[in-house]
Design brief:
Elements lengths: L2 E2 L4 E3 L2 E3 L4 E2 L4 E2 L4 E3 L2 E4 L3 E4 L7 H11 L7 E3 L5 H4 L2 H7 L5 E3 L1 H11 L5 E3 L5 E3 L4 E6 L9 E6 L3 E5 L18 H16 L3 H13 L6 E4 L10 H10 L7 E6 L5 H16 L4 E6 L5 H9 L3 E5 L9 H13 L5 E8 L5 H11 L3 E2 L4 E4 L4 H17 L1
Parallel strand pairs: 8-9, 9-10, 10-11, 15-16, 17-18, 17-19, 19-20, 20-21, 20-22
Antiparallel strand pairs: 1-2, 2-7, 3-6, 4-5, 7-8, 12-13, 13-14, 14-15
Bound molecules: MU-OXO-diiron.
The site of MU-OXO-diiron (FEO) has 9 residues, from helix 2.
């Protein structure tokens, strides 16, 4: 069912309460999500983005209850990943000649996905589309987070349609940020940033600075996932500027895997050592074989330092730790210190292996690491505590 945002703008998207995984198994979505599509009715009618393909018929059926589809003058595709463009083929079956406004890369992606010769209109930053009393201005946002991404600004209503930017995987029947639990929304927005956008942080900063320099009045930010930022909309812009600037809190995250509890015991003793020297520092421990990988990555994103532990397995490290390190590599983390630890029985490659991967991921490895033979006894655990104390001093 459509929901009114302003007298001219309605939400016509899909709330996906069931979504638990996104991008295949790459991203967990514990609180579901939404695919936000917006219908603008001025003298001309424009539709901004569609929804994910499994909901294409539902989307088009509901849209047709809201407006005669042939009355839609323009389709604006801010970004063409399938969660936003998936319903285009079904929609275009009804209105095949309607122009689709998108970037040049957007056209290439739509053609690559759907293999149709639709009526594309390529737009660049600064191009405008007059709707009557209001006007759309397009702002390319290359690599935020795909090459095709753009934002659309609507003057007259002062709305920035930002697609994935400022979004959150958060299902709610409430449209606006002032009607939901803000702690939950911010948690999801941070997880979204850490897992999807952090790798493009330099571009995030530049794009926000560019938009701020345009001096556009912004009453609302309407992303393509989650709630609309209506109450103090620039709060999420300020958060993005902080997150994009090598964000860190006074936190140390210890992420480990364990086979027979030896590496886990080491993790706990190291945590004790850090707390002894730096009692105000938040120290969090995660068994990465059990915990959600994206939640752990979000904790790493907000940490000053990261300690990674693994037992030695087949001359290497555990599958779960290797996966985490691979994802950390993709995040392009900045200004984070790191160290390794782990238990072993005979060959003991774990620490060397972790250190190499931490360095390759761009983290500052602050020591040679600590490895323990077999099950740590009291003196060995005391050594782990001292290792934690030394790390805290180095922070
Ligand atoms: Fe929500 Fe990049 O798609």
């Amino acid at each position: 069912m459509a929901k009114q945002i302003t007298s001219r703008v309605s939400w016509v998207g899909k709330i996906d309460w069931e979504l638990t995984k996104f991008h295949g198994d790459e991203l967990s979505t514990h609180r579901g999500s939404s695919y936000n599509s917006y219908l603008i009715r001025d003298k001309k009618v424009a539709l901004i983005d569609t929804v994910w393909q499994p909901y294409d018929r539902e989307f088009v059926t509901r849209l047709a209850q809201e407006i005669n589809l042939s009355d839609i003058d323009y389709i604006i595709m801010n970004h063409n990943e399938i969660d936003h463009s998936g319903a285009l083929p079904e929609l275009m079956r009804h209105i095949p000649d309607t122009p689709i406004y998108c970037t040049k890369k957007g056209e290439a992606i739509i053609r690559g996905h759907y293999h149709q010769d639709w009526n594309f209109v390529n737009v660049k930053t600064g191009d405008t589309l007059d709707l009557g009393d209001t006007k759309l201005t397009f702002i390319e946002a290359n690599m935020l987070h795909w090459p095709d991404t753009m934002f659309t600004y609507m003057s007259g209503e002062n709305i920035l349609f930002s697609n994935d930017g400022f979004g959150q995987h958060y299902a709610t029947e409430s449209l606006f940020n002032d009607a939901v639990c803000m702690a939950e929304v911010m948690q999801e927005a941070e997880k979204y940033y850490a897992n999807i956008l952090n790798t493009y942080s330099m571009l995030v900063t530049k794009k926000i600075q560019q938009i701020l320099s345009m001096n556009l009045p912004i009453d609302m930010i309407c992303p393509s996932h989650g709630v609309i930022w209506k109450d103090n909309p620039t709060q999420i812009v300020e958060k993005y500027l902080q997150w994009a600037d090598a964000y860190q809190e006074d936190q140390v995250t210890i992420a480990y895997d364990t086979m027979w509890q030896s590496t886990r015991q080491m993790a706990q003793a190291i945590a004790d050592g850090i707390r002894q020297v730096s009692p105000t520092t938040t120290v969090k421990l995660f068994n990465v074989a059990i915990e959600d990988k994206n939640d752990v990555l979000t904790q790493i994103f907000q940490s000053r330092a990261v300690l990674i532990g693994s037992p030695t397995i087949n001359n290497g490290i555990s599958f779960a730790v290797a996966g985490l390190l691979e994802m950390m590599h993709g995040m392009k983390l900045k200004k984070k210190k790191a160290a390794a630890f782990g238990s072993y029985g005979w060959s003991g490659e774990c620490v060397k292996e972790i250190n190499e991967r931490l360095a390759a991921a761009g983290l500052e490895v602050i020591n040679d690491g600590l490895k323990m033979l077999w099950v740590p006894d009291e003196p060995a655990l005391a050594q782990c505590v001292e290792y934690g104390r030394e790390i805290a001093r180095q922070l």
